Amino acid sequence: MTYEVLQIVVSVAAALITAFLLPWLKAKIGEEKYNQMKNLIKTLVDAAEKKYEDIENDKLRQTSKKQYVLNYLNSKGIILSEDEFDALLNSAVQELDKAFQ
Question: Where do the domains of the chain lie?
């Protein structure tokens, strides 16, 4: 499988998770708590961007940033399933990308 095809598959999977899981999560925990969680993750993503900006290897940088956010959430007792975490993380990253365009 070429890298481009893999990128497309990952993008489609992320879009599907975001489209279906985020509304479910919002309904499950309530809109206010959902928005708080999303804003916290957005802040953590921004902090991780700054902390790991000097790592040249893209895959290592992405993994380090994701682990940084996950470790912080876990240290505060915030436990999310992998799908929930990925959906919130993707949503936060998309919002930050839009803000910098």
Answer: 3-99
Residue at token pair 């959430």: 73
pLDDT in tens, 31-51: 788 788 888 888 998 899 889
Q: Can you give the pLDDT at residue 100?
A: 67
Q: CA-CA-CA-CA torsion for 20, 17, 83, 25, nearest 10 degrees?
A: -30
Q: Which tokens hold the place of 55?
A: 């790592």
- 41-46-52 Cα angle (round to 5): 115
Q: What is the mean pLDDT of residues 56-64?
A: 86
Distance, in Å, from the CA atom of 92 to the CA atom of 88, rounded to the nearest integer, reads 6
Are the C-beta atoms of residues 92 and 45 closer than 8 Å to each other?
A: yes
